């Protein structure tokens, strides 16, 4: 298990696994948001400047609102996801994995100002690098974290070999290894598969692929596939 | 149990849960409040799937299955345990007593923040009467000239020059500028309170410089009527945002019998509520400054009278509102 996983226990006694997002993806998400905000500023400026001084007044109010509240509104009303975060597959949640509310989101986004000091998120970056969950100062004070929203993992196709029980009992770890091997059969090159199968069946060198197909058959059996 | 049997047995339930989660998301978007279909079974499904996830992990089923159950549990968890707010009633209760009670609970920090803003202002104002050249320690010649121009009793306009349709422009300007400053004053508190102290003292010095200088050159007759009204809200709001920042700083410096982290988190929860109040006050201030303070049709005497009334109401609000509520 990678050490960016954080396990959070729910009241049901199940662990939720959250994967903390690091500074690089987060700054990319921030840049996307920055571009979007920039685009909105330009459109607003073009439209509102036609309204004379009243329009400029509106523009200033608009700038203020977007500058401070753009992330807050998205985080509260879109399950902790700003457009930039959506693009990078991230979201903000409370430390216990629940969705962020107004207070938490306001705290983390107003304190963004301190994270931005002295230049371009200097403090924020230092804080993220020192913190085990990559939290910037605003996240620490608000009790929030930025995590990956995992994309759906598809069931890996296992080669359709007739299921066959193994010759000897496998413990859980070994079963896991055999199934993983079968699931990854599309990603591995034939040579590498052979190499790995040779570890399991060291004596099958003269019969090419027999080790591989035996492992696949065992995996199918372990998964409970009916012939 | 073999994985594929397990999947076959529970697939129907998982799919129902997936449909429910999509329905919940849609419901949220359309603001529908009536439960539809088997929504009532949601907690039950959720607990069952939690159980399935635990089983799947224990039996070391394939990653895709565990990931799928993990997602279901995570999404279900987010829906089941989200805090639902009653926005309007909470806001009204906050204005009607929660906010002043919060400020009174931190009275000592309020006075500290108050002193950090007004003492430098007072000292600077007095010093300028005896050493006028000190004005250049805070302002350069260019800004000084523009400030003198704004409040020149002989000028056609007081405040920033504008026509009446410029009122709204200035409203926008005050919002962006003043609320921005107060957010910075608050956020600076995270640096062990230093940022808040800096902004309070700095704003105090600027205030003292402008007021002191304009008084000395005899422009007070235009300056004070202009600022007295909105000052009640604006200056108090700056003091309060400083106080909110200092509260966070203090939590870091002296966390008491909590860890620094927990102390900070708890302090931030309270501070942010003070900031909500501050935003409200600055909105009022910006409105007054743009549409009332700048109006020249109103005699200075009226402005002083209304200004005094506003100061008294602000003081009374923080002193007396929300006292009878059991905090």
From TrEMBL, chain A:
Domain RDD: 21-143
One GO location term (cellular component): membrane
Pfam families attached to this UniProt entry: RDD (PF06271)
Top-level taxon of the source organism: Bacteria
Subcellular location: Membrane
Membrane topology: Multi-pass membrane protein
InterPro entries xrefs: RDD
Positions of transmembrane segments: 28-47, 54-73, 110-130
Protein keywords: Membrane, Transmembrane, Transmembrane helix
Name of this chain's protein: Integral membrane protein
Species of provenance: Sulfuriferula multivorans
């Amino acid at each position: 298990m990678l050490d960016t996983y954080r396990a959070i226990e729910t009241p049901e006694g199940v662990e939720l696994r959250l994967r903390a997002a690091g500074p690089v993806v987060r700054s990319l998400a921030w840049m996307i948001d920055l571009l979007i905000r920039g685009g909105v500023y330009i459109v607003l400026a073009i439209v509102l400047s036609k309204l004379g001084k009243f329009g400029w007044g509106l523009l200033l109010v608009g700038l203020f609102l977007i500058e401070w509240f753009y992330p807050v509104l998205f985080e509260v009303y879109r399950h902790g996801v700003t457009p930039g975060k959506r693009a990078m597959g991230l979201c903000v949640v409370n430390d216990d994995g629940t969705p962020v509310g107004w207070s938490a989101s306001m705290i983390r986004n107003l304190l963004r100002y301190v994270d931005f000091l002295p230049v371009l998120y200097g403090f924020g970056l230092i804080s993220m690098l020192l913190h085990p969950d990559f939290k910037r100062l605003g996240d620490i004070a608000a009790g929030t974290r930025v995590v990956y929203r995992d994309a759906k993992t598809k069931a890996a196709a296992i080669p359709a070999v007739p299921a066959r029980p193994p010759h000897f009992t496998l413990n859980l770890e070994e079963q896991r290894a055999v199934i993983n091997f079968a699931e990854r059969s599309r990603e591995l090159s034939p040579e590498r598969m052979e190499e790995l199968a040779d570890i399991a069946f060291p004596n099958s060198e003269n019969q090419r692929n027999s080790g591989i197909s035996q492992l696949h058959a065992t995996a199918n059996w372990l998964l409970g596939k009916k012939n | 149990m073999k994985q594929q049997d397990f999947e076959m047995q529970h697939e129907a339930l998982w799919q129902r849960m997936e449909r429910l989660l999509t329905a919940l998301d849609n419901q949220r978007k359309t603001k529908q409040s009536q439960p539809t279909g088997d929504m009532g079974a949601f907690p039950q499904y959720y607990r069952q799937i939690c159980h399935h996830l635990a089983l799947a992990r224990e039996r070391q089923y394939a990653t895709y299955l565990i990931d799928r159950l993990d997602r279901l549990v995570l999404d279900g968890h987010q829906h089941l345990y989200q805090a639902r707010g009653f926005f309007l009633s909470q806001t009204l209760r906050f204005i009607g007593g929660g906010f002043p009670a919060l400020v009174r609970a931190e009275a000592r920090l309020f006075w500290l923040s108050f002193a950090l803003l007004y003492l430098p202002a007072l000292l600077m104002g007095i010093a300028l009467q005896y050493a006028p050249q000190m004005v250049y320690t805070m302002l350069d010649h260019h800004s000084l000239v523009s400030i003198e121009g704004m409040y020149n009793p002989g000028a056609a306009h007081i405040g920033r020059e504008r026509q009446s349709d410029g009122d709204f422009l200035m409203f926008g300007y005050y919002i962006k500028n003043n609320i921005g400053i107060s957010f910075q004053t608050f956020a600076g508190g995270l640096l062990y309170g230093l940022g808040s102290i800096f902004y309070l003292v700095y704003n105090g010095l600027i205030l003292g410089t402008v007021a002191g200088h304009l008084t000395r050159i005899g422009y007070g007759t235009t300056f004070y009527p202009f600022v007295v009204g909105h000052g009640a809200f604006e200056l108090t709001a700056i003091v309060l945002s400083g106080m909110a920042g200092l509260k966070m700083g203090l939590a870091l410096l002296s966390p008491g019998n909590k860890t620094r982290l927990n102390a900070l988190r708890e302090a931030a929860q309270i501070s942010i509520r003070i900031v909500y109040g501050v935003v409200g006050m600055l909105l009022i201030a910006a409105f007054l400054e743009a549409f009332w303070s700048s109006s020249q049709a109103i005699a200075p005497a009226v402005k002083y009278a209304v200004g005094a009334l506003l100061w008294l109401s602000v003081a009374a609000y923080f002193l007396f509102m929300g006292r009878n509520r059991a905090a």
